[in-house]
UniProtKB/TrEMBL annotation:
Organism: Arthrobacter nitrophenolicus
Entry protein name: Transcriptional regulator
InterPro entries in the cross-refs: HTH_MarR-typ (IPR000835), MarR/SlyA-like (IPR039422), Tscrpt_reg_MarR-type_CS (IPR023187), WH-like_DNA-bd_sf (IPR036388), WH_DNA-bd_sf (IPR036390)
Keywords: DNA-binding, Transcription, Transcription regulation
Domain HTH marR-type: 9-143
UniProt superkingdom: Bacteria
Length: 194
């Protein structure tokens, strides 16, 4: 990025940040009555096509397996998933949606959709295309884990890269849940309340 950034670009960055925070708050509010967080919904989405082990699910939704473990523990306690030991490798757990989990996911999808503005003048496809270009234009030297969210059905495995210095990668921020039991969360930074 250049230091003499066009004022329109600077204002666009600010608008992207503001829009993200507003959408996150609306999603949090929309999901709260379901007892779900955005992080939980992302995990449920990752399991919708079929069962995975925890590491495969973490790869699919771009988080570390340990981070995902806390989310899965809450989902299992709520009856939304089951975790069973794999017969071939007892160290691995097969994670699978329950019928209650499928119902919760469908309710969450409707709740999130209803949280978005219902304005026919918004060019959603244009917005998506422009944001995709924006994300793609980020400097090549960015952290390799900084990727746009990949829909769970694009299950490409990525090489495991250990984190250093206790820092989370962006995907982990996506799936990190708040520490309280109240559980309203977020999409980009689950613990951040602006």
């Amino acid at each position: 990025m250049t230091s003499n950034l066009d004022p329109d670009a600077r204002n666009s960055y600010r608008l992207i940040t503001l829009a993200a925070r507003l959408v996150q708050r609306r999603q949090d509010d929309a999901l709260a009555h379901l007892g779900l967080t955005r992080a939980a919904v992302i995990a449920l989405e990752g399991l919708a096509p079929g069962p995975l082990n925890q590491e495969q699910l973490a790869d699919a939704i771009r988080v570390q397996s340990q981070t995902l473990g806390r989310i899965l523990t809450r989902l299992e306690a709520a009856g939304h998933i089951t975790r069973t030991r794999q017969a071939t490798d007892r160290r691995q757990l097969k994670v699978e949606l329950t019928e209650a989990g499928r119902t919760a996911l469908e309710s969450a999808r409707h709740a999130e959709i209803n949280a978005y503005p219902d304005d026919p003048s918004i060019g959603w496809k244009v917005l998506q295309d422009e944001l995709t270009k924006f994300v793609s234009a980020l400097p090549a030297n960015r952290h390799p884990e900084v990727l746009p969210f990949v829909a769970p059905d694009h299950r490409t495995r990525r090489p495991h890269t250990p984190k250093t210095g206790g820092r989370r990668g962006p995907g982990e921020e996506l799936a990190q849940e708040p520490q309280s039991d109240a559980q309203p969360a977020r999409a980009v930074d689950p613990e951040r309340k602006d």
